[in-house]
Amino acid sequence: MSKTLVEKIWDAHVVKRQEGFPDILYIDTHLIHEVTSPQAFDGLRKRGLPVFRPKQTVATADHNVPTLDQHLPIKEELSRYQVDMLTKNCKEFGVELYGLGHPYQGIVHVIGPELGITLPGKTMVCGDSHTSTHGAFGAIAFGIGTSQVEQVFATQCLLLSKPKTMKIEVNGELKKGVGAKDIILYIISKISAAGGTGYFVEFAGSAIRSLSMEARMTVCNMSIEMGARGGLIAPDETTFEYIKGREFAPKNAEWDKALAYWKTLYSDKDALFDAVLTYDAADIEPMITYGTNPGMGIGITEKIPATLGQPKSEQTSYQKALDYMGFADDESLIGKPVDYVFIGSCTNSRIEDLRTVAAFVKDKRKADNVEVWIVPGSKQVEAQAKAEGIDKVFEAAGFQLREPGCSACLGMNEDKIPAGKYCVSTSNRNFEGRQGPNARTLLASPLTAAAAAVTGKITDVRELI
User: Which domains does the chain possess?
Assistant: First the structure.
């Protein structure tokens, strides 16, 4: 019987299946951080249970950590408490922790791939919605709630209903100045922030195949922003080349065995998906959001859609979003002044992202009205940036290269955007207050963000490259 890639991986991990009940699904790798794990650890403690398979659990501190002076005590009381609790819990339950000061510390969805922990064919979970990032390797990866974190701690399994499957194909060649972030923002703008609800999405097509692994991670990272359970891309030579030689990747005979299995991970030609969507890469231009969910996006040269053009049931919330952002119907965003530029988050904080920005801003300076934060996704990314001299390029441009963490992606640490200020951000969410109370977020690619940084306003990067 023909199967989709999701079905192949899912079925291989079902411990027990019974008609009328959710599947018991085995979880290969459990990633944890300081925000969603404390209650789960406490639940184990109250029931006198150990972590069932601690070797399959990996922890890091990322959401609450400061990105300046990480060698000093954390100033914010709640942040300090959560990071301290993670350290205590991991020690008590025998879980490997890459905490502050560790050379492997970083955003959980950055360190998994770069350490070779993320592998094709795995089931991976984390108490964080953007776990879908790891699907770029041909893995079933998704976010879970705190009660489910406790379930995985205790049993290494979850009770889950098999999701529907969707295939999204993007074919053709991308235009100059258009990258992975633009692809996914374009797709979400077409199907809405709820268009993938109930589905696991497989991204395919020649434009997706042409992407590097780090770019594929950006696409899968934001599959959650269309409401999907997760997203994945079938592994290929690009995947295998990226994994080979990484710290925890299989070696020698184990590599050969793993590779033979990985090469079977693709959707069969006659596999049936519950939904199929197809897009032409030539239709995609640099994207930017104008509202308060990631589906409210437009091509950089387009105008904000009119409120009356929205479904009647959505017009009130649509107008509310425009009012929050200080924008109006049929308005162009080009030339709008910005106050902050944030390049980072689990979406766009990898070494390729930093290289792209550095190549663009070399011999340029930031505009006087903009504050620019560059936050690497991990200590390894930070070290690589310094080894390549990228830090010097940023310094000369007036950009601040900070230390690893989730930073201004979310208002949960010290890196907040002030009320009323506009931030062009490479992160994944533009909800009201996401980057700080009453902050205004415009999601964009690293290149579009860099263009805003040097011009001080929203700019079509194609005019500068």
Answer: 5-275 (3.30.499.10), 291-463 (3.30.499.10)
